[in-house]
C-alpha cells in the first residue's frame, strides 16, 4: 500500500515542490558567497590592428561581498522554512491519503460481505416464493400470499443490486484514493 501511496499524483506534486525549493535553497546559499569578476577588454578595433597597436587592453578584477548579509541570510532562512512546511504538508497529505485508502477499502469489504449475506437472502426469498406456489397448487395458500412472497423476493433482488452498485462505487473510490484511476481509464 505504501508503494501505491508514494506514486499518488498529489504526493508527486509535493516532491516536485521540494525539488524546486532545494534548488532555490542552493541559489540562496550561493548568494552568501563573495562574488569575483575578472574582466578583459581589448582596446583595439580592426583598424588599430593593422597599425600595430596590439598591446592595448584593459584588465579588471572586481570582488564583492556584502558586509552584513541580512537579506541573503533572511532569504535562505525563509527558503528553509518553506522546505520544512512543504515536508510537513507532504506528511500530512500522506496520512490523509492513507486514512482515505483504509476507509475506502473497509467500505469495499463491508459491501462485499453484505453482498454475500443478501445473496443468501435472495435465494431464501425465492425458496419461500416457490414453496408458496406449491402450497397454492395444493390448495393451502392464497394468491395474496404468493404475491406477498414474490414482492419480498423482488425487493430483495433490488436491494442486492443496490448493494452491488455501492460495492462497485467503493471499488472505484479505492482506486481513486490510490491515485490509480487516471492510469486505468
Count of individual helical segments = 6
Q: In which order are the strands of the major sheet placed?
A: 1-2
Instruction: Using the CA coordinates, give the radius of gyration.
Output: 38 Å
Beta strand % = 5-15%
> Can you give the mean pLDDT?
87
**Oligomeric organization of the protein chains:** single chain
Give the topology string: H per helix, E per strand. Answer: HHEHEHHH
CATH structural architecture? Orthogonal Bundle
Number of strands: 2
The level-1 CATH class: Mainly Alpha
| Tally of domains | 1
Question: Which stretches are low in confidence, meaning pLDDT under 50 for 5 or more residues running?
Answer: none
Classify the fold: give the CATH topology.
Helix Hairpins
Structural class estimated from helices and strands: mainly alpha
Biggest β-sheet strands, sense, barrel? 2 strands, antiparallel
Q: Which percent range fits the helix content?
A: over 70%
Distance linking N and C termini: 20 Å
Structural shape: rod-shaped
Amino acid at each position: 500500500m505504501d508503494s501505491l501511496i508514494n506514486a499518488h499524483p498529489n504526493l508527486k506534486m509535493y516532491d516536485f515542490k521540494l525539488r524546486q525549493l532545494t534548488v532555490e535553497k542552493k541559489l540562496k546559499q550561493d548568494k552568501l558567497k563573495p562574488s569575483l569578476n575578472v574582466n578583459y577588454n581589448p582596446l583595439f578595433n580592426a583598424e588599430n590592428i593593422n597599425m600595430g597597436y596590439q598591446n592595448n587592453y584593459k584588465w579588471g578584477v572586481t570582488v564583492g561581498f556584502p558586509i552584513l548579509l541580512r537579506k541573503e541570510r533572511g532569504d535562505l532562512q525563509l527558503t528553509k522554512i518553506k522546505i520544512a512546511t512543504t515536508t510537513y504538508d507532504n506528511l500530512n497529505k500522506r496520512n490523509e491519503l492513507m486514512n482515505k485508502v483504509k476507509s475506502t477499502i473497509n467500505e469495499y469489504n463491508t459491501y462485499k460481505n453484505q453482498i454475500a449475506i443478501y445473496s443468501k437472502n435472495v435465494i431464501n426469498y425465492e425458496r419461500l416464493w416457490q414453496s408458496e406456489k406449491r402450497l397454492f397448487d395444493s390448495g393451502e395458500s392464497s394468491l395474496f400470499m404468493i404475491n406477498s412472497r414474490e414482492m419480498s423476493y423482488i425487493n430483495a433482488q433490488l436491494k442486492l443490486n443496490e448493494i452491488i452498485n455501492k460495492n462497485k462505487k467503493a471499488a472505484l473510490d479505492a482506486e481513486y484514493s490510490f491515485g490509480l484511476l487516471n492510469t486505468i481509464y
